[in-house]
Amino acid sequence: MGEEVPLSGALLEMLDAVAAARGLEAPPELRVRTLAPDEMAGAYTGLYNEDQREALRQGGALYQLLGYVEPGESLWDVTVSTAELVAGFYSYGNKTLWIPNDREAFDLGALSAEERETLAHEMLHAIQDFHFDLRASGSVATTLDARLAWTSVVEGDAVLHTSRWSESSTLVPGGLGPGRDLLLLANLHQVVDIPPQVLRVFTFPYVTGPVAVEAVVERHGVEGLNALFGDPPDATAAIIHTNLLDTDWVPEANVDLLLPADAIAGSLGEGWTESERGVLGEFHLMNYLVGDRQAYPWPAHGYEGRGFRATETLVQRAGDGWQGDSYRIFENGEERVLVVAVRFDTTTDAGQFEEAHSLLLARTRSSLEGPYAFATREDGFVVARLEPVGRTVFFAIGTSAEVARAALEPLVGG
């Protein structure tokens, strides 16, 4: 697939220069292939094997319930749509990088600034892979939240050091978690119809990731950054609040015990089974609260001095003090419900999340019934909330108010 370019001459010199900017030796071998720009998306999605594709086709319930995508849309649909943004990518499964080229032959000297940056960015991934074995490094990240934190280190490193190599940045990198063996650079100047929630997932590791990486390098040098590949952060909270990277902080254990699966399934009734469980993390909870608004409440590389709007500040406060969470999804035919428990550092932090949750749902059709507050979203899903229990917040999102209430009933009172 694509035309292979020999790693010699000016291309080899560029690889050495990029590696020097990163403070590491260049890999002795690297496969470089070029493709026509209009073939990049197909090549990227073509590297997913059938098992990965099927898993993505079956996935999507979490994104639907959080309001990221329309009901019925799968993660494969999301992957195909975001592939339109691909400007270049590195596959650590194939030890190969792909870059666009619409000329008859590859000529490094004829590349535009954007094309050279794309090439440098993907070279950095190859350098990381040679020194740290990205497949092994990423294998320790077993939850949605931990995977995003790991990707933030990998892509944050590549963005920061590509920027330092080139002293300019014209592309915004991006990627989506399910592409396990693929790391890409995305051109967000290209207009595509992607929901804001998905776009924030796509860009977070590559916009906020460099902020965290730069903080580590400033405090501990490149050795501190290298250490993160062997011992990645446990949660996106450590990417958002970089001071946590200097401590032995880890998310609170056993939060999943707050969501007894048997009791919840029993309350929902016959035919209900648990289909998914995991950890959302601070990023996804904040992203859920922002919804389809055009906002970015996290630190952003190159925008350290920017001001935050009222909604962004509200969401920031809602995320503060996150100590861990657990989610479970239950399904019965076309019916489904997401149940979430979040632990915060203090009761004040829990109250701030609940306040933001309530305010950001204010434009929905809402009602109060006993201890439950219901809000019906435009997509038809119903959010059910309880008052915080100490420093713990519970909420559910289901296909109906009855389903959401039944999922929370075993949790009422603690």
Question: Can you characterise this structure?
Answer:
- With 414 residues, the protein is of the alpha+beta class.
- Helix content is 43%, strand content 18%.
- It is built from 16 helices and 13 strands.
- It has helices spanning 9-22, 40-46, 50-58, 61-66, 75-82, 113-132, 134-138, 144-166, 196-207, 209-230, 237-240, 261-268, 281-290, 310-319, 347-360, 401-408, and strands at 3-5, 31-35, 86-91, 96-100, 172-173, 182-186, 273-278, 322-332, 335-344, 365-369, 372-376, 382-385, 392-398.
- The strands form two sheets. Strands 7-8-9-13-12-11-10 form a seven-stranded antiparallel sheet.
- β11 (372-376) and β12 (382-385) form a beta hairpin.
- α1 packs across α8, α3 (50-58) packs across α5 (75-82) and α6 packs across α8 (144-166).
- The termini are far apart.
- Mean pLDDT is 90; it is low at 168-180.
